[in-house]
Amino acid sequence: MKRVYWIIGIVFLFFEVSCTKDGFMKTGISIGRFDGSMLEYMQANHYDWDSTVVMIKHAGLESLFDGDEEITFFGPTNFSILRYMYRNGIEHIQDMDVDFCRNTILRHVMKGKMMRVEFKEGKAAEGAEAIGEGGDTYTMMGGNRIWAYTFKSDYQGVAGMGPLLLYITSLDAHRKINIASGDIEPDNGVVHSLGYDFTLGEM
């Protein structure tokens, strides 16, 4: 358990120093095209995805991430899983209920491949509202729903001239979720990596 606490502490430190003044996180995750399956991509990038891979295997979902059917994965990284384990006194992923792991992973998976540019443009909701203007709602393989939209950010004070950003909101958990890196493209779909501030179970 001490090792889990040590890892969480290190990632906390990394999270604190890796945020830019613009609020974006320099995660180093987004590498674009990957020659291999989604599972192989995560296995090749241990720093961010080790715990995610273990959870996928524990849930018996290897064939989903290693198969031919295209999927979109809003992926929780190691830190999201380790924080959940720390808060719940869990030492090993294998100690977690298999059905919980399966259902949780499926809540992050959408059938079909959706690159960032394919999501409709929109505008964030105001106040306590979950859904803002534009965008669209999507049902995940776990049965939960999200609202997703893209937004053209500003560049040097010019509106709409910056990069296209992707945002999602969990309609079940009523929580806005940051996308740290998007459009990671293995052979069988696309990965949009969730921010380090996301905790497993908030989707």
Structure report:
By secondary structure, the protein is an alpha+beta fold. The protein has one domain (34-194): Roll (FAS1 domain). It has six helices and ten strands, in the order H-H-H-H-E-H-H-E-E-E-E-E-E-E-E-E. The protein has helices spanning 2-18, 38-44, 46-58, 62-66, 78-87, 98-106; strands spanning 71-75, 109-111, 122-123, 133-134, 136-139, 145-152, 164-170, 175-177, 179-184, 189-194. The strands form three sheets. Strands 2-1-10-9 form a four-stranded mixed beta sheet, with no helix packed on it. A hairpin with a 5-residue loop joins strand 5 and strand 6. Helix 2 crosses helix 3. The protein is globular.
How do the helices and strands line up, and which of them pair or pack?
Blueprint: H1 2-18, H2 38-44, H3 46-58, H4 62-66, E1 71-75, H5 78-87, H6 98-106, E2 109-111, E3 122-123, E4 133-134, E5 136-139, E6 145-152, E7 164-170, E8 175-177, E9 179-184, E10 189-194
Parallel strand pairs: 1-10
Antiparallel strand pairs: 1-2, 3-4, 5-6, 6-7, 7-8, 9-10
Helix pairs in contact: 1-5, 2-3, 3-5
Brief descriptors of the model:
203 residues, 23% strand, FAS1 domain, alpha+beta, 10 strands, four-stranded mixed β-sheet, four-stranded antiparallel β-sheet, single chain
Oligomer: single chain
Order of helices and strands: HHHHEHHEEEEEEEEE
Distance between the termini: 26 Å
Q: Trace the largest sheet across and list its strands.
A: 2-1-10-9
Instruction: Identify the overall geometry.
Output: globular
**C-alpha Rg, in Å?**
17 Å
The main β sheet shows up as:
4 strands, mixed
**Total beta-strand segments:** 10
SS class: alpha+beta
Helix content: 25-40%
Tally of domains? 1
CATH class category name: Mainly Beta
> Percent of residues in beta strands?
15-25%
What's the CATH topology name? FAS1 domain
User: What is the assigned CATH homologous superfamily?
Assistant: FAS1 domain
Protein name: FAS1 domain-containing protein
InterPro entries: FAS1_dom_sf, FAS1_domain
Domain FAS1: 52-193
